[in-house]
Amino acid sequence: MTGYKEPPKGxxxxxxxxxxxxxxxxxxxxxxxxxxxxxKAIGEAIAQCQPTADxxxxxxxxxxxxxxxxxxxxxxxxxxxxxEALKGNLAAIAMFRDTIGEKPxxxxxxxxxxxxxxxxxxxxxxxxxxxxxxxxxxxx
Length: 140
Hints:
The chain is mainly α.
């Protein structure tokens, strides 16, 4: 169990104080969710703001293809990320690649012990039927 701490010596865990401690954890989780949502909203608002005039001019001089009316802090961050990637920063390279939509797709293939397709004796229709059955079973 993550985050588990032994109770202090002399403290006995009962169902009452376990409920109380569980409620504290639930309240803390809700508080953190509110904080995270607020921080995300603030970050999105800042990203949509316009950078200073000197930063806009610097960006236009480096990347003339970027139209002035689309420049916001988010565009500025992507440009700065690109510059870091050009310096050889591997994390920036990966982040830039992911940002422009070229993240490699993780491909997982499941096979049996022999390396063959699982349920190779079933038709596509039979597989669809089995998937529907299992889905119904999970909903119960």
